[in-house]
């Protein structure tokens, strides 16, 4: 049995590079040799024990690579093809998928829905911070990379772009909208880019790190607000002349940003939530107009599947959005523990790291 | 100056019938002689001082009547015509209205949005528990009653039907959906009827009063659950074989029903909230899948305007929904204080009362 | 190699019952033993040579049956289970499917879209007027029949209900709409039922056969018009007092009904087209307001997949719609040629026939 | 009675500058002193007698100006304010408006819908190629110009931007879409800009004039096709590698472009039509997949109302789209006949002309 290197969750506080068998390929699977991958904020939650996964699991859900081997029932692909797969890998055939809700894929469950069930890599099955990753339901998930795009250019597609853009999409951003994005980490930065891509004409970013605020401006923020310089809701109301925003995107996962997002809305506005929360949330009565404000709160888990990936790579190819500034550091897989150390501590202005076996 | 009788908010705990001048008619207004009106749960909140309005205000927002006098700039109507107007009376010309958000009408404000601004009758201007009511922006709001419909048949249109149905509409109910409605007061009962009207095939009502549960069955509930007979979420999960519902409609305005509604959803489901809350709300982390469940929470304030009223009267005329069982008691305007006493204390199986000057 | 009986297209004018090998089961397939099926108007087009298929093909796309054998990679089903599959069998994993457009499934094609590609049974692969049928992509398509539903109760789900209902769904029927349905064959009758199920309050059916008009009334038509008794557009305008309809559903596939449907619309209305046309269509300039009328023309090919089938069976189980009147005749598979003879000539008031091996 | 200069339709072939009384101001009206306006392709149709209007009518529907006088019932504006109004001026209070269909505004008609009824200026009432124009329903239509925007910057908002953008909006353009725009006149150019603004990543423009093709590239076209250099459908299929486009926008109003647009679509694609047609249209059977291709044909009349105008001016203010290249020539109102002569004959590379009294 051949072995490969993989970043494995050992216990709270420890993700280590170790050896594992290269997985067997079932009829619907594809084995991908990873050429580039990255670390996500969620992986840090796993590292810190804040999000529970099984000990021994390979971490990582953002694969860029080459098809090494195809399952016997997989058609339409060739070994050697460069591909990506989304962080979320819907089966395509569950009731949830056929209901347009593939991120809650419950293939194999009684009713075909499972909360967050589409998120498999580095969560319920081995992930892609490794030399190889097995992609289930390959025909629904492998998306060939256009020849002229580099690994780096598509590295944000599997999760960061898909999640960030969905903040704007689920929020229903329309031409002429005013949009605020709370927290300008990689997801929030992509939410800024997504809001611009959909026609928002006033985009306000909220953070406190100068480097992130600067990237936000490059990606489309018309204004950036430092939440340490004063109550962000007041600053937003000042910027919008008291009107409030049409859509507020929450990209952090805290009570404070959730509340501020709701308070920033104009009557009838939409809070589009992307953050991963770690405790119950409070909806303030006033911002919610006692339930009579025609407000919406929508949540979205990173849309996956090969059509989504194809569209995001089209965005990269078109030059409409340039996410190169997001990849700030580069490591070999052999040095992934060092990469975790840097990324988990948000040192050295890190936004995203590229990891290459 | 001619006088009329009107039910006036005097102070917390006191709504009394007294005399007031019949209002003057501005160029865009219409004066309606009330022939039938009713009392809403919201009026009881006002009575109890739980929802603040100015002392001296005439209460009531569900008018059925006859055009007594038209403003000089009003075209397309005739004095003597039987009409209704919605509880919410959008101006038609504010930015909010032109944005499809008339219930948050902010005509006259700087940006044209005002939270709950479309609700004027018995809230920010004199209402219709009186012999006459003045309707602003008459051309956007007066909806002629088809000849063959009685006052009683259309009495639920201005608020109860419009609000209840909107619970299903905003929830995006589709053919084949499973829907639960929390609380089977008049609004919840209309939400049941609305869910059926939109094609839900399994409708579950939650309450504890046998009389309401019986009406719910008549209006389309396939199952009714007594929340006193066990945890309603468990009962819903049992009825749906563990799947959960596609849409949960909250029609009461309490933390308990809000939480249960959220917990009843299948992954990716929608909580459609109609209730008027009186304190901050808590979103339980688990039911919200930490923000990753693709859930939506949508709130709706009773849609108004004459087109909405026309459509609801079409529903009445078509016989698709029979709301006659909702009018359980009948009073003369002279006896409205007695009607409040009955209604506020939910005595004698009261659902809605008809009040006639 | 075991043999089975099957209704085979031999040449224009001849569909005959003959023997064929029982198909082999690939890893993603399921072999279904047919217990009930039916003949569709499209099959008659094939019989008449108006719609081309390969000689030797087994006809039929409305299967009700029992799982005989499951492919090696199929999970979540058991042999012996009663199931249906839709007339359209999307793969679940093509770009089209993942784009929400499964009826145009192009699995295996370069870009993943193929016009009408989701329609496979009796079109591009062997169909189900046979003792057995092979279902490709079984996990996306097999929908278990609830125990308490008979074959007859679910026989309309695979095509007639799905297509007919989609006329109302794609038309965006809303509560209070006025809808006209042109042609009251099985599809049109289901369009009537679908429009009612979605809240249309005035439904007008157009046909000339008294028996069909009577069934239309049972399924929800408020008015029925005999197009031989006068210009149908004039009759519709008379019934709507000159307003026109919000949604016109074309369920036949002729220039005359297409034109009348367009002419029946109110400004801004939608023509929802279900018919299969056999020649170019003409859009009359006036009814189209020279392109400035905010009109929509939408077409829909029968939605398929197991979630769609599940929802339609929910409708059957709920009793919301009773399609029993549609099955007017019953034949053994051995007598299918006789059934074609009756059905193709629309004799004896036939609407749909049940065929049982 | 004071007089003003106005461009008046005298008879087929003759629009002349003449004197007319300055109109009286009714209670809901506003009198606007025009500071800049322009000529539309539709005005040329009127000039040529291809679109009938009453003799003596003032032409023009794209007003930029200053409030001269407000009606007695108009609130929320001040005389002296700089404003625009849309080419389409919905009343805000008709059934059509309250149904979200203001371009088909039928205020004053029995059912409140009138085909193209929202287009009043230079069609059913006097237009704005004059020193003054009367705006009906002023509160629904006057949109204040932000101080920092010049007349030129907002001159395209009333019609060209609103119509062009709506081609993309009604087409439902999504992130990653491929879009083709047929004909790169001012409307088509704005459709290109609108498609880009909504996230299309491959935009193909079709025309033959090099100057227009160049502007199209500036506004977002990734490819431009010369329809004289070969069948445009074949060129589009070559550019999309045989896939076809998600959305095809028709911006001319001819059978040839309509047909090509339909033929360019991928299965399930949408034809969004903006052109004004002058004869019946033919839908080719093949491109329509015999009615089974899940295709949509949607038409849109320039959305109006002050909220629409506000949003479009936000686009101008944001710098997201720069339409300055569209204004190629400039005339005084006194020379408007000369402007018509240039514009009607498409001389000197004219795209749009600015007319200033």
From TrEMBL, chains A, B, C, D:
Entry-linked InterPro entries: ADH-like_C, ADH-like_N, ADH_Zn_CS, ER, GroES-like_sf, NAD(P)-bd_dom_sf
Tagged with keyword Oxidoreductase: yes
Top-level taxon of origin: Bacteria
Occurrences of domain Enoyl reductase (ER) (ranges): 13-351
Classification via PROSITE patterns: ADH_ZINC (PS00059)
Pfam family for this entry, one: ADH_N
CDD domains: NADP_ADH
Gene3D superfamilies recorded: Medium-chain alcohol dehydrogenases, catalytic domain, NAD(P)-binding Rossmann-like Domain
One of the record's GO molecular function terms: oxidoreductase activity, acting on the CH-OH group of donors, NAD or NADP as acceptor
Statement: the UniProt record of this protein carries the keyword Zinc: yes
Listed cofactors: Zn(2+)
Keywords recorded for this protein, A-Z: Metal-binding, Oxidoreductase, Zinc
Family statement drawn from the similarity comment of this UniProt entry: Belongs to the zinc-containing alcohol dehydrogenase family.
Protein name per UniProt: NAD(P)-dependent alcohol dehydrogenase
Gene source species: Rhizobium terricola
